[in-house]
Amino acid sequence: MSILYRKNRIFYFLLLCPALLLYGFALLVPLFGGTFPYSFLKWNLMSGKKSFTGISNYVRLFSDSGFRSAFLFNLKLGLFTIIGSNIFAFVLAYFLNENIRAKGIVRSLFFIPNIISAVLVAFIWTFIFAQVLPGVAKIMGIDWLANISWFGTPQMASLTIIIVSIWQNVGFLMMIYTAGLQTIPTDIVEAARMDGCKGIRMIRYIQMPLLMPTFTINLFVSISGAFKAFDIPNAMTAGGPYGSTMPVAMDIYQEAFVKYNMGYGAAKSVVLFLTVAAITVLQLYVTRKREVEY
C-alpha cells in the first residue's frame, strides 16, 4: 500500500509540473530576478540612471505617510470586503441550495458582476451613486439621502468602494460555497435532522465544520483580492479625496510609473508581497487546522 501511495504521489506531482513551471516563470522569476534586486536601487525610470542604495528604500517607507495611509486603507478595505462578501455569499449559497424555482438563473445573475470588467462596474456604480440614488431620493422626498455626497468625504468615498467590491465578489464566492454545500453527504444531513438538529444549529454544528475546506479557499481568494485592489478605486475615486481611498497597489503604480521612482516602487511591492504572504500563510494554518474529514 505504501509503495502504491508513493507512486501515486509521484504521478500526481508530475502532472502538476507543467503548471508549476509556468507559475514559477510568470511570478517567481520576475519577483526574485527583478523586483527584489531593483528594490535596493535608486532608479529613475525616465532618465534610466541607476545607483545602489542598499536598504535606504525600505528605511524610507517608515516615514512615508502616503504609503502608510494606503496600507491602512487596504487593511480597512480588506476587513470589510472579506467579512461582508463571505457572509453574503454564504447566505445566498445556503438559500439557493434549497429546492426553489429558477435557482440556476438566480445564481447566474449574482455571478454576472464577477465577469464584467471592473472598470465598467466602477462606472456603473459611480452613475448610481451620483445620479440614480439622489434622483430617486428626491422623488421619494428623502432629503437626507438626496444630499449625501458619496465621493466628497473620505468616509463616504471609502464606503462606496467597499460596497462595490463586496457586490462584485459575492457571486464568485457564492459559487464556491454552493459547490461545497453540494459535496456534504446527504446521509449526514438526514441523520442530524432525525436527531432534531435544524436551522441555525444545523448550519453551526454540521454544515459549517464540513465546509471548512471551502472557507479556506474563499478566505484565501478574498484576502489576495483585497490586497490587489486597484481597478475599482482607480476608476471610481482615483485615490481621492486627498488620497484617502488609494490602495497600496495604486500607490505602487503612482510611485513607479507616474513619479518614475522604480526602485522605491519595487521596495513597496516587496513589502506588499511579504505582507500578503504572511497573512495568507497564517490564514491557511488556522483554517486548515479546523477542517474535518468525513
TrEMBL record:
CDD domains: TM_PBP2 (cd06261). It comes from Hungatella hathewayi WAL-18680. Belongs to the binding-protein-dependent transport system permease family. It is a multi-pass membrane protein. Gene3D superfamilies: MetI-like. One of its GO terms (biological process) is transmembrane transport. It is found in: Cell membrane. GO terms for cellular component: plasma membrane. The chain crosses the membrane at residues 12-33, 77-96, 108-128, 210-230, 266-286. PANTHER family: ABC TRANSPORTER PERMEASE PROTEIN, INNER MEMBRANE ABC TRANSPORTER PERMEASE PROTEIN YCJO. This is ABC transmembrane type-1 domain-containing protein. Keywords: Cell membrane, Membrane, Transmembrane, Transmembrane helix, Transport. PROSITE patterns: ABC_TM1 (PS50928). The keyword Ribonucleoprotein does not apply. InterPro entries: ABC_transporter_permease (IPR051393), MetI-like (IPR000515), MetI-like_sf (IPR035906). It comes from the Bacteria. Residues 71-283 form the ABC transmembrane type-1 domain.
